[in-house]
Amino acid sequence: MKKPILIALICALLLLACAKPPFKDEFESDKPWVEQMTHLPAYPELKNLLAFDAGAVTSNQYLVDTTSIRIGQDEVIRFTLVVKSSAGAMNVSYEGIRCATSERKLYALGRDDKTWTKPRVSEWQKLDYVRQFYAQRELSKNIFCPHQQIVSTTEDAIQALKAGMHRSIFR
Predict the structure, then answer these.
(1) Which of 26, 27, 129, 145 could form a disulfide with 99 if both were Cys (CB 3.0 to 4.6 A apart)?
(2) C-alpha distance from residue 71 to each of 40, 51, 125 (Å)
(3) DSSP 3-state assignment of 72?
């Protein structure tokens, strides 16, 4: 009776010794995402603004300051957005879009004296959850983040803005 138990114990120990440890890879996607420090750009000048179509839902004009576009190592594209109402009022903001997660973050708001101020809330927000993010959704989906992939260069982003959509998008 002792012999079968001994054989079973030896077999179990041999199986444990042969078993490989669980596969643990260290691919980029497994590393925790870390947002990089953000530096505010110069306040936008009219000559650097490029308009884009945010859809027929609104009568506002939407523009991006091309000199402010930055693609971070954290895979966030940051830019200055200018929204001009039909009455001529302008709202200026410095924002970021994280293409991989379809989120947007507000970093700063422009003031009338052409300086930046911190917003009350500066958190990542899903673009699909806030109805008013017309411009940010358009920029994300068709210009800066085609197929949820960030554009490769600032020049690529500017070309997509000029064309109204990224060259990899087919409509």
Answers:
(1) 145
(2) 13, 20, 19
(3) coil
